[in-house]
Structure to design on (691 residues):
């Protein structure tokens, strides 16, 4: 071998020698590489052997300079007659997959989010590869991936239910390209769906929701009508666990051990006999040990985890729960990025959710960059706090020893590319500077206006509504819609008492004051979101068409959701204030503005859902903007009954009809009631003239 090899040139007719065999995961990743090669170089790659091949794909052999840990890979170069031969060498199957995807990114120039960011690679006639060896660096986190949770947009995007490979393959491909190796493929989807099978076929480890231990069927779904009590029906519970083990034992599984109640709540809500922490902890410990033993009977060296979630974390820290040796303890953030216990209704204890100093064993993290909680979470929009919070919290978690496992709640993928990209950097390197990563992220997707676009992302987090004293108390898109609907419902039911479901934000104060609290928060945020919207539109107008479309799909639509949400929430609150003061026409006008503003949010989603994203937002069932519009429409119609009923003509006569007509008009020529929108606009114009 020469001291210094020449490099090699990759072109359309380059020959690849794949010596790994054609397992299903290898076939999937080869299909990706073949597609990438043809897209970039203009021709399908050829398969061959020996010196004909410029690129060899193989497993590590004795003497190879390939990293020795699981999933390691390297690029090595061998001498040929005219140019070097590149060997992509993997320690195991995932090592081969990551090696090929590294080649795709670094040589062919394919971005990890090429599909989701609509960023096709640059067309090239040929690519020069210098003969510089490369060895992968061991990731900070051993098991790392996404929980595709609350994925209603993915579910509703295509007609097929449950979603097919057309939806799931781009999700799993992006995860692999980000260096992820583990996934929960959806939330409570029919087990007949393709999602778990396809994830396994693409080489990913599967894991489970903490409310579905071992990935088993829910007890009440399997045994309707029976009490979901392990004490009363241990055989039925264990039957479900045994079936789940039998079904999955041939796959790569990070088994989740847990015992929560049906519907993701404390089990004692179904079984009130367990009325002390000691009783609860003892049962959970015994059930988890039983689950572990059942797995160990059929799986050699199983990888197991246990969710330290909600009440289980509290019982564990109180010393009431024992975790089997070797089981990874999974700690969760509060849904808003802070590693503290999550808010339950109005109770927000913010108990630290990390292993204590000296905690033995392996630990990991379940982390949300998107969340759904019927209060203030971000579902259709990005993480609302500054992204550095993510880097700081995960960095601290790793420092506390919770670095064996990182599961990121990825939601619907499309709205969360920046934060998912940041998390990939963190599970790879263990630390990140959010500003530096933002610069890198923007540079990948935009050729111009990079500084301005980066500032838009920073200003986004600066404008989200701070609803509490903590850095993570920042409102996402659900902050506007769920409180607005609660306010309308309480109002139209004739209630004036403090609404307990709003105490978490506004406090334990009279309902009118709670409404004013939300109105003030929304009104204060409107100028900032208006400026940011105008700035984003100005930047967008200076971009080429493809990049303008990307900015509008990735960021502008989210700004529009916040701006329309602020306007709508402020307006419906103002409508209630005017109603309480007996100013019914004015309240009607404010309610109309709420309808128009919230409708603007829905229209923004429809505009963003163009091209390949057609119908992407039609299943907006969680933030549910259409539901908010319906609530405000109902309030508006309710208000019109106060003074304009029964003929829906009295406000027109009182405020809009010329004085010369009021006393001599004929009903047959004037009794065509104005539609709500037109009446509201004409009333507003009349009142504005009066000052």
């Amino acid at each position: 071998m020469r001291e210094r090899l020449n490099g090699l040139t990759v072109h359309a007719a380059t020959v690849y020698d794949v010596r790994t065999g054609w397992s299903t995961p290898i076939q999937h990743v080869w299909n990706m590489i073949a597609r990438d090669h043809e897209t970039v170089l203009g021709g399908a790659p050829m398969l061959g052997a020996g010196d004909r091949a410029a690129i060899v794909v193989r497993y590590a052999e004795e003497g190879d300079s390939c990293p020795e840990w699981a999933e390691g890979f390297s690029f090595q170069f061998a001498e040929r007659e005219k140019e070097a031969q590149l060997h992509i060498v993997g320690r195991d199957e995932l090592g081969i997959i990551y090696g090929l995807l590294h080649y795709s990114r670094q040589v062919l120039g394919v971005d990890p989010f090429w599909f989701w960011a609509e960023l096709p690679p640059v067309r090239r006639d040929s690519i020069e590869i210098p003969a510089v060896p490369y060895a992968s660096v061991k990731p900070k986190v051993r098991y790392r991936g996404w929980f595709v949770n609350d994925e209603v947009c993915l579910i509703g995007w295509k007609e097929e239910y449950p979603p097919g490979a057309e939806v799931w393959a781009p999700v799993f491909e992006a995860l692999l390209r980000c260096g992820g190796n583990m996934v929960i493929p959806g939330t409570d989807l029919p087990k007949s769906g393709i999602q778990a099978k396809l994830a396994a076929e693409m080489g990913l480890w599967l894991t489970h929701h903490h409310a579905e231990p071992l990935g088993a069927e829910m007890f009440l779904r399997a045994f309707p009508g029976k009490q979901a009590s392990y004490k009363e029906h241990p055989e039925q519970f264990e039957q479900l666990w045994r079936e789940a083990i039998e079904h999955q034992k041939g796959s790569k599984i990070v088994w989740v051990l847990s015992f929560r109640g049906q519907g993701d709540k404390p089990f004692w809500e179904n079984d009130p006999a367990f009325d002390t922490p000691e009783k609860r902890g003892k049962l959970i410990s015994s059930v988890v040990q039983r689950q572990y033993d059942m797995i160990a009977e059929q799986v050699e060296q199983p990888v197991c985890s246990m969710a330290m979630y909600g009440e289980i974390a509290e019982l564990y820290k109180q010393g009431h729960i024992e975790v089997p040796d070797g089981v990874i303890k999974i700690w969760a953030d509060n849904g808003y990025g802070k590693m503290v216990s999550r808010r339950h209704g109005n109770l927000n204890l913010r108990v630290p959710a990390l292993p204590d100093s000296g905690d033995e064993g392996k630990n990991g993290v379940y982390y949300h960059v998107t969340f759904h909680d019927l209060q203030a979470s971000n579902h259709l929009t990005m993480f609302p706090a500054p992204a550095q919070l993510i880097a700081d919290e995960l960095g601290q978690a790793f420092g506390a020893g919770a670095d064996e496992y990182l599961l990121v709640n990825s939601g619907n993928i499309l709205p969360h590319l920046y934060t998912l990209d940041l998390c990939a950097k963190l599970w790879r390197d263990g630390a990140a500077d959010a500003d530096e990563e933002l610069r890198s992220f923007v540079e990948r997707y935009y050729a111009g206006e990079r500084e301005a676009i980066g500032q838009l992302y920073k200003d986004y987090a600066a404008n989200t509504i701070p609803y509490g004293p903590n850095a993570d108390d920042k409102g996402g898109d659900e902050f506007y819609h769920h409180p607005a609907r609660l306010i309308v419902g309480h109002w139209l039911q004739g209630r004036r008492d403090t609404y307990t479901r709003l105490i978490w934000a506004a406090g334990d104060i009279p309902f009118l004051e709670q409404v004013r609290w939300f109105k003030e928060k929304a009104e204060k945020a409107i100028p900032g979101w208006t400026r940011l919207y105008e700035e984003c539109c100005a930047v967008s107008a200076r971009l080429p068409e493809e990049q303008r479309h990307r900015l509008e799909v990735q960021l502008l639509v989210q700004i529009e959701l916040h701006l329309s949400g602020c306007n709508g929430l402020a307006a419906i609150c103002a409508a209630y204030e005017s109603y309480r003061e007996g100013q019914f026409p004015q309240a009607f006008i404010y309610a109309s503005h709420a309808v128009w503003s919230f409708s603007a949010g829905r229209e923004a989603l429809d505009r963003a859902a163009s091209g390949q994203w057609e119908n992407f937002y039609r299943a907006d069932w969680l933030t549910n903007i259409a539901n908010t519009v319906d609530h405000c429409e109902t309030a508006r119609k309710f208000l019109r009954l106060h003074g304009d009923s029964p003929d829906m003509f009295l406000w027109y006569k009182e405020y809009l009809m010329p004085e010369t007509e009021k006393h001599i008009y004929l009903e047959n020529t004037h009794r065509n009631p104005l539609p709500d929108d037109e009446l509201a606009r004409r009333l507003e114009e009349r009142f504005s003239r009066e000052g």
